[in-house]
Amino acid sequence: MNNIKSTGAVVALSLLLGACAIPTSMIPRNERKNLPEQFANSTDTLNSAKVKWKDYFQDPYLNALIDTALRNNQELNIVLQEINIAKNEVRGRKGEYLPFIDLQGGVGVEKTPRYTRSGAVDATTEIKPGQEFPDPLPDFLLAANFSWQVDIWKKLRNAKKSAMMRYLASQEGKNFLVTHLVAEIANSYYELMAYDNQLEILKKNIEIQQNALGIVRLEKQAAKVTELAVRRFEAEVLKNQSRLFHVAQEIVEAENRINFLVGRLPQPVMRNSQGFTELTPATVYSGIPSQILQNRPDIRQAELELTAAKLDVKSARASFYPQLNISGLIGFEAFDAGYLLSKPESMMYSIMGGLTAPLVNRNGIKAMYYNANARQIQAMHQYERTILSACIEVANQLSNINNMKSSYDLRSQQVAALTESIDISTRLFRSARADYMEVLLTQRDALESKFELIETKMQQMQAMVNVYQALGGGWAN
Fold first, then answer.
1. For the chain, how far is it from start to end, CA to CA, in angstroms?
2. Three-state DSSP state, 66
3. Which of 107, 189, 391, 475 could hold 178 in an S-S bridge, CB 3.0 to 4.6 Å?
């Protein structure tokens, strides 16, 4: 008999150990690409990402818009609620590895048939001399239930830590959204100022063309030009007058784009567009590439997601191990409510511990484990991809700042030359040394060059915004 018990114990132990065997791990090793020591053509050690947006942008109207958006933007408020959801998830995970205690109370009655074994026994049982067992039998219960899954393999603790990492990642996700929101408002604001300046340029150019049209009409009366010249100048004036309405529509849409980001209904956007072409972009310090690992919220978010994925693998791995569950009950039960708390004999208690492990058909556990591994590898690649994207964004925007500055300087010279050409062509036309087409084309080229100058200034200011965002600036208040 003892041999049989020993053999059974050995078999049970072998099955238990076999149940603990887990598949081969697929944990990745290399998680971070080597970053360059510095960005191209940059020896900065300071980093503009450390500058708060209130100090980086000097326009009070723009700062007021950003400040309002950080309070009212709907997308940002939605993300804040997602952070609360993630925080509650941490609280829920924490509760899973703590003991559960439930208070139970109950009242019932039972009528046992007399001519059965239980009924016959009850009928012959005396509680006290001369007092039979109650029939029907009341039942009063007051007890506390206890259950606890002992987290010996840290399965539940790792799940809680994973939820904590995702909660922290959701906060970084909010910071990343703030950087986008700040940059989008600033870019739209500079775009709106550019449209204002284009509208003013167009109005002034129409006035110049109308004056030229008057000259052509006088020249026609003097038989120096034909009706064709008059019609061509009239068409040019009408074309630009029509263009006024297109620019006006662009202004309305740009204003409402800002209103949407700020979280308010359509209304005029306060700004001072005068002197837009004289705006000087803020000096940008790129720092060293390794600083973006700390400054960019999306990189920190990806790193926290990777840490959470690692903890998920550990938690899934623990599912292959035996689990220890302890349960118990303590309380009082009696058929008379008066005996419930007054009689020590009414007390009852029980405690039980059990060790369970998966043995047959573990495909579900394997699937969860393989999925956790796959998500970890996915998170690793996402982390590397985020770092790579950040480095490329910074490099592109640093180059863009330099190129836009050079382009703006050259376009300023082009505008000056063409503006002077308008007066020259007009004087030559009056002295019959140039035909009307030269005047018309010169005015057209001058207008387009001024429009392109404004667009280049807008792109220059937006490059200042975009490099600030690429470096990880804008989320710190």
1. 77
2. helix
3. 475
pLDDT at 246 over 50: yes
Domain boundaries, position 401: 24-97+154-322+362-470
pTM over 0.85, yes/no:
no
Residue 94, class by beta-carbon neighbours within 10 Å (0-12 exposed, 13-18 middle, 19+ buried)? middle
96, 150 Cβ separation under 8 angstroms:
no
Task: Identify the sign of the CA torsion 224, 229, 233, 238.
Answer: positive
3-state secondary structure of 128: strand
| 439 domain-assigned | yes
Tell the residue number behind the tokens 């941490």, with chain if given.
Answer: 90
Number of structural domains, the chain? 2
Q: How confident is the model at residue 126 (pLDDT cuts 50, 70, 90)?
A: low
Distance CA(150)–CA(156), nearest Å, equals 9
Domain boundary among 356, 380, 412: 356
350 pairs with which residues across the strands?
329
Looking at the DSSP bridge assignments, the partners of residue 327 are 147, 352
Enclosing H/E stretch for 32? none
Q: What is the CATH number of the domain that holds 347?
A: 2.20.200.10
Asked which of 7-16, 73-82, 306-315 is least confident by mean pLDDT, the reply is 7-16
* 325 strand-pairing partners: 149, 354
